[in-house]
TrEMBL record:
Organism: Pedobacter steynii
PANTHER family assigned to the protein according to its UniProt record, in alphabetical order: LIPOPOLYSACCHARIDE 1,2-N-ACETYLGLUCOSAMINETRANSFERASE-RELATED (PTHR30160:SF1), TETRAACYLDISACCHARIDE 4'-KINASE-RELATED (PTHR30160)
Keyword hit for Nucleus: no
UniProt name for this protein: ADP-heptose:LPS heptosyltransferase
GO molecular function, one term: ADP-heptose-lipopolysaccharide heptosyltransferase activity
One GO location term (cellular component): cytosol
Key words of the record: Glycosyltransferase, Transferase
Any GO BP: lipopolysaccharide core region biosynthetic process
Pfam families on file: Glyco_transf_9
Keyword Glycosyltransferase tagged: yes
Top-level taxonomic group: Bacteria
Length: 334
């Protein structure tokens, strides 16, 4: 390894991105923890990801919310909080900061102000950085892109599996909703996504939901509170009445729903990744230009549809039929 266990006592991981991006970095976190079992590892990220970081306490010791920075689009810049943030970062005296967000020169200038012994991460031009930096890969799954940096640092890899730990409180919250469902007897349909341009048409979600209902499954429509209008639109287009869970679940209880579902169908990367992490069969309909970047596809029980390349509902329907056919074969074999 480029850095010995003896000299690395405090590590900071900088990745101030959304939930889907965070989940893809878990295999890299797992490798870091295995390589530096006695180090204190901090995660520096967006404030809204703190609840997820708490689920990863077996890899991460602390969380530092990032208040934004001029030129970074993920959140507005909070100048007052930034000065407090920078003072806190500098006072920790990190031995190693890993910039795992991207190839931005602006990011790398920012982390140079963190008062750390060693810097490593992604960059645009390696000639401008030390040999602990790596040009950000232009292709491949995001999980492998993150692991490429870990491997570049000589750290042994600890697998590429996703994880989403569940807490007793997650199960308790779901039980409090008193939904008329049983494990394996329903399908989760999640029509929402971070941007409206990423949303598959509601009528198509409704048609797939109708097919699931015809197979005898109950249909649960999931989403956040601000996606309620979209979820209701899908419900209105269906032939049968679904169970609407949008706005009722926490992230944790939603994950339990996903865990216990027969299958999950969505066009949201983070929902697809949670399904993969929890070993739930899924169909991810990708509306962006990098369909196979997010999550993992085993082509059997976790499928990905590249809608941009093949905008044909018949293809999606055929894949859904095939997926449920595989589910029947899978259940017969176990």
């Amino acid at each position: 390894m480029k850095f010995s266990k003896k000299e690395i006592k405090k590590i900071g991981i900088f990745r101030a991105l959304q939930l889907g991006d965070l989940l893809c970095s878990i295999p890299a976190m797992r490798s870091l923890r295995a390589a530096y079992p006695n180090a204190k590892i901090y995660f520096i990220g967006l404030p809204e990801t703190e609840a997820v970081i708490k689920r990863l306490s077996h890899y991460l010791d602390d969380f530092i919310p990032f208040p934004g920075y001029p030129g970074l689009p993920e959140q507005p810049f909070d100048e007052e909080n930034f000065h407090c943030f920078l003072a806190k970062i500098q006072a920790i005296n990190f031995d190693l900061i890993l910039q795992m967000q991207g190839n931005s020169n602006l990011l790398n200038q920012l982390i140079k102000s963190f008062n750390t012994r060693y810097l490593a991460g992604f960059c645009r031009d390696r000639s401008d950085q030390n040999d602990c930096f790596l040009s950000y890969p232009d292709d491949g799954p995001e999980i492998q892109r993150q692991l490429s940096l870990v491997e570049h640092l000589g750290i042994p890899l600890s697998g590429d599996e996703l994880e989403f730990p569940l807490f007793p409180a997650d199960h308790q919250h779901l039980e409090q909703l008193r939904l008329p469902i049983g494990p394996g007897a329903y399908v989760c349909i999640h029509p929402g996504s971070k941007g409206s341009w990423k949303q598959w048409p509601s009528i198509y979600f409704a048609c797939i939901a109708n097919y699931c209902a015809d197979l005898g499954f109950k249909v649960l429509l999931t989403g956040s509170l601000h996606e309620m209008q979209l979820v209701q639109h899908v419900a209105d287009l269906m032939k049968t009445k679904p169970i609407i869970c949008a706005g009722k679940t926490t992230l944790g209880s939603l994950a339990v729903l996903i865990k216990q579902a027969a299958a999950v169908i969505s066009n949201a990367t983070e929902i697809s990744e949670i399904a993969t992490a929890l070993d739930t069969p899924s169909m991810y309909i990708s509306m962006d230009k990098e369909p196979f970047r997010w999550g993992k596809s085993d082509q059997r029980l976790n499928r990905i549809i590249d809608w941009n390349s093949h905008p044909d509902f018949r293809i999606v329907h055929q894949e859904v039929v095939s997926l449920f056919g595989e589910l029947q074969l899978f259940h017969k074999s176990v």
